[in-house]
Design the sequence.
């Protein structure tokens, strides 16, 4: 099995631009999306989005999440306050999200490593090194502080 995966933390708003979110937080995003930049009606993307991403290959999902939390934890209270404001401005919850995206059988993904973790032990097919992940107490606290939802999308390529 080949697996491609990445994680991002995002703040989104229908009314507040990613540039304004950057100004308010004082943190430069890795990526942004501008509402309606691909399609005007209906607007696609549906909202402005400010994103911190981890697309580093070879890391498990929890390692990718930890890279993001390491970058943002000191700002979590400020992010949570802004997320609450964005929810109020847009009239609905969900401005803040920690997103996990995994694509199975993606040609650009990582091959399964069948070498055993301990010399002399055979690793069986189907035990991909990127399968399985967990969310620890530190990450849960970050999600609480930032008012973030955890969203996991998993797809089969093709």
Sequence:
């Amino acid at each position: 099995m080949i697996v491609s995966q990445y994680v991002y933390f995002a703040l989104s708003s229908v009314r507040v631009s990613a540039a304004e979110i950057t100004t308010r937080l004082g943190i430069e995003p890795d990526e942004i999306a501008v509402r309606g930049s691909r399609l005007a009606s209906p607007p696609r993307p549906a909202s402005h989005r400010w994103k911190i991403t981890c697309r580093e290959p070879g890391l498990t999902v929890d390692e990718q999440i930890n890279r993001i939390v390491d970058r943002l934890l000191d700002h979590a209270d400020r992010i949570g306050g802004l997320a609450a404001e964005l929810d109020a401005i847009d009239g609905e919850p969900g401005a803040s999200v920690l997103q996990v995206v995994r694509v199975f059988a993606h040609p650009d993904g990582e091959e399964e490593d069948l070498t055993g973790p301990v010399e002399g032990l055979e690793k069986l097919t189907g035990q991909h090194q990127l399968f399985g992940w967990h969310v620890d107490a530190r990450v849960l606290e970050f999600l609480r502080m930032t008012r973030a939802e955890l969203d996991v999308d998993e797809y089969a390529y093709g």
Remarks:
- Strands lie at 3-13, 31-33, 48-54, 96-104, 149-156.
- The chain has a mean pLDDT of 89.
